[in-house]
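Tokens in:
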């Protein structure tokens, strides 16, 4: 199994390559084949604040749909990439709010800042840093969102503890993420392409929810669930034809979920 440092280096390399792609990117197949040409993303087109140049098609949900963001609030987006969710957030919080993006890939932060300059926003900011050790003050956010990023973080317990720290009392998070049912085959867990595509780093769903509770969020709830699938050829390449064919009989499944959790208050 790769170390935490090796996994972070892998993610930085892969997503740095994606950020450096020229032109508008519409999904992993166009952006360096993040997961065998398959995207788990949902379409943001038509949402207020949508900026095509910021949409790299690397998410697995639309957390702002369930986040309950209000005008004037301060909202953090973890793993903000080229700024896609941050710009949607900014459309909701308006000129009196504050939208903050955090990403550990320097090229992504540069790309997001360039996009913000094009849009001439003065209440949008992007920071370079890791989710497990955010360079952000305690209790600054009303809401925190993230889209298909936390499963890339080696220490998820520390990540959710940091989320708890930066939220205001009574604040909440809404994250879309990849979780598993059943056991991930060891060969797939070791595959770099699967890790960069948000699969090998994913937890089992029950373990994921327990991680959230251990960080101090007592009332977390799943608001949406959608099963996603890996390409058949990727499974054959990694596992072999016989094991790939039998995988579905083991009860293994990959799901995109969107989860909401509250700090110090009951969910409304």
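Residues out:
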């Amino acid at each position: 199994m790769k170390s935490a440092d090796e996994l972070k280096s892998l993610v930085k390399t892969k997503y740095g390559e994606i950020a450096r792609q020229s032109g508008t990117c519409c999904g992993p197949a166009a952006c360096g084949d993040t997961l065998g040409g398959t995207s788990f993303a949902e379409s943001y087109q038509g949402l207020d604040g949508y900026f095509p140049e910021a949409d790299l098609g690397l998410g697995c949900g639309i957390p702002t749909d369930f986040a309950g963001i209000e005008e004037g609030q301060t909202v953090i987006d973890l793993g903000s990439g080229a700024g896609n969710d941050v710009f949607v957030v900014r459309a909701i919080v308006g000129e009196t709010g504050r939208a903050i993006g955090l990403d550990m890939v320097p090229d992504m932060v540069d790309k997001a800042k360039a996009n913000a300059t094009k849009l001439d926003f003065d209440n949008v900011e992007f920071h370079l840093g890791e989710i497990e050790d955010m360079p952000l003050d305690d209790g600054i956010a009303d809401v925190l969102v993230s889209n298909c990023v936390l499963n890339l973080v080696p220490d998820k317990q520390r990540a959710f503890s940091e989320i708890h720290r930066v939220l205001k009392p009574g604040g909440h998070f809404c994250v879309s993420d990849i979780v598993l049912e059943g056991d991930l085959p060891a060969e797939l867990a070791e595959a770099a392409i699967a890790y960069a595509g948000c699969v090998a780093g994913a937890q089992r769903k029950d373990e994921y929810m327990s991680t959230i509770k251990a960080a101090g969020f007592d009332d977390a709830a799943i608001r949406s669930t959608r099963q996603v699938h890996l390409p058949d050829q990727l499974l054959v390449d990694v596992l072999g034809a016989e094991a790939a064919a039998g995988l579905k009989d083991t009860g293994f499944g990959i799901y995109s979920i969107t989860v909401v959790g509250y700090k110090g208050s009951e969910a409304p």
